[in-house]
Task: structure prediction
Amino acid sequence: MASLASGPVCPLPRGDHDRVQLGHGSGGKMSAQLLREHFLPRFRNEHLDRLGDGAVVPVEGGEIVISTDTFVVSPLEFPGGNIGDLAVHGTVNDLAMMGATPRWLSAAFVLEEGLPFDVMDRILNAMARAAAAAGVAVVTGDTKVVDRGKADGMFVNTTGVGVLHDGFRPRPDSARPGDAVILSGPVGRHGMAVMAVREGFAFESDITSDTANLAPLVAALRTEVGAAVHVLRDATRGGVASALNEIAGASRVGVELDDHAVPVPGPVQAACEMLGLDPLYVANEGVLVAFVDPAAAPRVLDVLHGFSAGAGAAVVGRVVPGHPGMVVLRTGLGGTRVVDMLPGDQLPRIC
Amino acid sequence: MKYLAEYRDPKLARSLVDRIRREATRRWTLMEVCGGQTHTIVKQGINEVLSDAVEMIHGPGCPVCVTPLEQIDRALHLAARPDVVFTSFGDMLRVPGSECDLFQIKAKGGNVRIVYSPLDAVELARRSPDKEVVFFAVGFETTAPANAMAVWRAKEQGVRNFSVLVSHVTVPPAMVAILDAPDNRVQGFLAAGHVCTVMGWTEYEPLALRYRVPIVVTGFEPLDILEGIWMAVRQLEDGRHEVENQYVRSVRREGNRPAQELVERVFQVVDRGWRGIGVIPASGLGLREEFADFDAERKFALGFIRADEPAECRAGDVLRGRIKPFECPAFGAACTPESPLGAPMVSSEGACAAYYNFGRFRRAAGED
Result:
């Protein structure tokens, strides 16, 4: 067995890297590793390497943003939404986080043999309504059908194109010491809403998904606040904790959160307590994180409070000069703890 | 949130912190037994704000952490069988065995499922008569009644394709092992509130007397833990060594009798290996002879699977309070939450993972 004196060698022949595991889709460290080791090296280019929510690419007369996302959720319909509106909001929000106004969408569907038409039609209706409300047109698409058992009812991919505006370029690497960290609303609703109706979780709740189009909030921030908004990110997979870690890493700054300031709805807190989960790591589909100039923070809150998706907006922390790349939470007791990126999916605790 | 917010009030918590620091005339060394308590202590920074008055040693009370490598390897062997659906509590899935973990077995085609209750596994077995459903029955006295109930019900309902891979452990023998060690530093214990909800605290009375250590049955919220620490410190300052109950809203002296009776009917006391510590006599529970048909170890003849733990991992010293997790040479280098060497790095309740996740910042700042 390797001695530790010879360096940090894991003595367990664990065969970690020979195939994909579910944890690689968690949005945590395993996802980052998957990209770093297998995907990015093969597709290297200046646009991809920035790793934003979307890519900014030059076109004649300016720049556009392209973003793509694939949606897999079980069950397909959940309290507060379904995979259809989720697929529109997800890509629209990714474009918005780059500062763009979403314009066009493509939609591609993998349909499982046996999927009832009434379920599919409800999903397509929700998708059409969400696109119309967001002012985006679904301009191209594709359908494929696979054998029963080879897809979870339906998988959806959407790709979006948005247009940029002069003087408004929020980016994950643009956080600065002193910035106020703002959340647009309470955390954990989407993940817990889906979990509550998933097979095997026999608890009743009235939690609904927060799935929402955040582009209007961003448009208002652009016109009302402008360049004082340094970073925007929607806190989806991996939750607020993962989004903040990505920003802290990209901007090489420390982030300090106030435990009591993070808004967690009562039922989400209750469900998380019961299942041994931390709401900071639970997925959201309608919550954005904003890093803004502290002087602009009150104005940002005013703007966000004007929207139902931003009604619960609050300052939850700040960018500090110390511990670059690390997110630290101040507890009510005055203690501190590191809010790290999780390796894979959050695991329920035993007791 | 009702019944929780009351026990997390920062103002009350700070006043308890002040009281403990005022009343401690020296720095005392306490051990919280249960992993759930470790989680709260590190998550809330309780060890940090009390560090001049109390040193908290994180005890062996995380069931995920103390399940021996051999049992994990047996679980992996079962989970890889095509005829088996292997069910488990969530945080057992990332515990490293000799070769891999349950997540990796799942990725290779094993049917591994997370359940929240062993009764769900019995139900799954009833609905899948062509499969063998195995539940990984781990944990302390807290999970033993529900696991006993699952076996009991499977027998009652004639669910022959259900079995349990048992790795149950009990708290008092572990405390004795810690207290008997010649280099023991623990001066008082916070006993695990949920274990005592089931078992009561009569077992702890002879321990307090014999080893002259205060034992305070303690809950899991920040105010519970601070009050438990305060009660233990007060005993130490007074020179007393008694069993006291902080967790009065949940624990009675005699415990939960029907739960104890069920455990007694299904399980018997056996010698049990603890990961990182070794075999502690009479420290575990195994199925009684009349439930042998539901014992996965016998049903699948798993006795041939043996394993030695990696020598680099000093989990045993961590679990016994001999070293802090970061004093292990593998900590944060060969051993991280992404690639854990020993089980205390796996579970969020494990002492090593707790330190890794929540403590790096404090050490970086030279505060701990």
Remarks:
- Chain B touches chain A through 69 residues (CB under 8 Å).
- Residues 152 and 311 of chain B are 39 Å apart (CA to CA).
- Residues 222-238 of chain B form the longest helix (17 residues).
